[in-house]
Design goal:
65% helix, 0% strand, single chain, 198 residues, mainly alpha
Length: 198
């Protein structure tokens, strides 16, 4: 009876290993080459090269990059954003962030359920306390932005309807009041819009 031969395949040469890796990673290599081309066209590779080599070319490359109009505009915008965020009260920003996060979750839930809003549903939503509070916040944001834009343009005189509403620069937390149950009286509400059911 014949004995099986012991055969071990020779290891792949470095060239064969590279060819196999290229075949397996063709898509990733294409994306990496695109990124490399974009970095080269933007001048980033030149700056990185000079950074690794060091020397006098580095400081001139950095100065050239920073003196471009787009770089100066970006730096100025960053400084202005830093000033703006420095004036915001953390409590106000936290409240707004939580509200936006909850709104996004609610909106995503509505989209996932395929809910649409018709005119009747819109009118019902306007009676919803959460919607009223959110609309108040949105209109407060618009009012504050409008006031700041007017003041930036040199207009400081309030109109007659603006005198009705006080200037509210400080955050006033809403006190939590427990809901009280009221028995329906069968009379029209104070606004005359809805009838209470008996």
């Amino acid at each position: 009876m014949a004995k099986p031969l012991d055969y071990t395949a020779p290891p792949k040469s470095p060239r064969q290993q590279i060819e196999t890796a290229q075949e397996d990673s063709a898509e990733a290599l294409t994306e990496a080459l695109k990124l490399l081309r974009e970095l080269h066209e933007a001048g980033v590779l030149n700056t990185v090269y000079k950074l690794t080599k060091g020397g006098s070319g580095l400081s001139s490359a950095l100065l050239d990059t920073l003196s471009e109009d787009s770089s100066l505009t970006a730096i100025r915008n960053f400084i202005e954003l830093t000033k703006t965020f420095g004036t915001l009260e953390p409590q106000a920003l936290g409240q707004l962030g939580n509200a936006v996060e909850a709104g996004i979750r609610e909106g995503a839930r509505s989209v996932a359920q395929g809910k649409g809003v018709g005119l009747g549903e819109l009118l019902k939503l306007l009676a919803d306390r959460d919607v009223q509070v959110a609309l108040g916040a949105v209109f407060g944001l618009l009012k504050g932005a409008g006031r700041a834009l007017r003041e930036a343009g040199g207009e400081t005189q309030d109109t007659a309807n603006q005198a009705e509403f006080g200037r509210h620069d400080q955050i006033q937390p809403t006190p939590q009041t427990p809901k009280t149950s009221q028995k329906p009286s069968g009379k029209r509400s104070g606004r005359g819009l809805f009838k209470a059911r008996a």
